[in-house]
């Protein structure tokens, strides 16, 4: 039985074709992206920030001023004045700031992509956990049935007075332990489903996949790292931050140019009036002092930070990749070894022939079952680690 299970498992895992992980997992991730409350909240925040950024490039409000001066000693008539004016920065400032706003908007989208990845990666690992638990449950159901059959055989021997009560009790306890394993697995499945439901905004998720459909072979590390550098939202956000900082330098340089004011002025006294245009210009002596230097320093920081974080991410990636390679070789050793064994059937046959006691049978059986369970655990960890390595694809 064990041989057949391992053989089927190996055939499923190492099948060629390069299929992507289950469509069902993709559907779950799409559903979570739509329903996740944190992502919904951030989308609203993005809209608010985008509107706030655009408002920062508006013209200043127009100014209206009026004077009526009837008091005081004067021989002429009362003096009145009316003025409408509009102040604005130098035109190139608005163009530079508009580009800066566009880059900031792009940066918001990249920040959203990071948050999306931070949510979808655990969701995918939960799905992989459910697949592993389902496989473990199927194995445990077979073990429960085997334990029941052994208990029935021991009970029959006990009734024939061929074995003692201790032997019967051990067989019953072994059967109960296997039943308890089923209950534990079902509890774990329920907890993982609750975790998925939480990520899905409280909405129930139906996930019934019971087999891994993604092959375990991965591309060479250099190839994957090149994809990470071009696709990974974290690195793209870092580079986007550089672009924003560089554009801020251009904005500050343009703000060194004078502000302008234009308007209309009307003055009247003793029935006479004067009308004409009004113009003004600011003298940029103090307001922009050191702002260009500060923007350049910020850009230099962004560049250095990008290099530092990219180096750290590459180091973490290589650690994960090397760990994956080690685990994959260990997993293949397990599957190769277990494929050639028929230990459970041989042990059962030896027990039925009276060659070994029930206790010897049970102890030896647990040894092989623990090895098989370890193989299943490594299989799950491999798929989850691969999900982390390839998280940039989410």
UniProtKB/TrEMBL annotation:
<keyword id="KW-0998">Cell outer membrane</keyword>
<keyword id="KW-0472">Membrane</keyword>
<protein>
    <submittedName>
        <fullName>Outer membrane protein TolC</fullName>
    </submittedName>
</protein>
<keyword id="KW-0812">Transmembrane</keyword>
<dbReference type="GO" id="GO:1990281">
    <property type="term" value="C:efflux pump complex"/>
</dbReference>
<dbReference type="GO" id="GO:0015288">
    <property type="term" value="F:porin activity"/>
</dbReference>
<feature type="signal peptide">
    <location>
        <begin position="1"/>
        <end position="20"/>
    </location>
</feature>
<dbReference type="InterPro" id="IPR051906">
    <property type="entry name" value="TolC-like"/>
</dbReference>
<keyword id="KW-0732">Signal</keyword>
<dbReference type="GO" id="GO:0009279">
    <property type="term" value="C:cell outer membrane"/>
</dbReference>
<keyword id="KW-1134">Transmembrane beta strand</keyword>
<dbReference type="GO" id="GO:0015562">
    <property type="term" value="F:efflux transmembrane transporter activity"/>
</dbReference>
